[in-house]
Amino acid sequence: MDFSNIISGIVKILSNETFIAAITAAIFGAAIAGYFSFLAIKKAHKYNMEKADLEVRTVTSNTLRLIMIEIKTAWEVYDAEYAKDLNTLAEGEPYIATFPVGANTFSLYDSSPSCLANLPIDLAEKIVLIYMRMKGLIAMIELNNSDARQVYSSTEINVQAICNERVASGRPLTGEELEKVFNTHLNHEAVRLGMGSTANGMKLLGAEIKDLYIALSNSCSIE
Which of 137, 138, 195, 210 is the most exposed place for a label (fewest CB within 10 A)? Predict the structure, then answer.
């Protein structure tokens, strides 16, 4: 094998302008293909990031709407069905009434921590604070419910005993007397359990929640 002839042939091929142009074109083409492939990947990545960001913002916005609906509904029900009579009471007067409270009252808020993390800090703070106060108010309502049931039960037992004594003595209570005795014992039992203090606390906490609700509604762009 004549290596000198082989090398000479290789040199001749490499020095051929057509070959050099082909190699150059191939390299240049590969470079262009790589560049556009990079741009395509970069564009796809940007699109995916923007899509993910849009999805997060959409979920956050929708969840915030639901949270505001939950707050609005809870406040309006409390204000119309419970606080209306509560706020007419004199200072220290017991509120002998029961109000049904669900076991899972604020399910939307309790299941939406990621939404709060994506909100502006001042808005998130307002939402957390109003829910803390509303949960505190619910705890007071449940305490008042329990005391009211106990008061009614105790009053019924005492009044029944009085009725039995009056019947036995031949002097049964009239309807008006019965109502007066019942209300007297009812109020006495409520005072004994400290329900007047609970009523005062609910009124104060309700007023604070009302202010928080107004402030939150004004600062939140979700209608």
Answer: 210
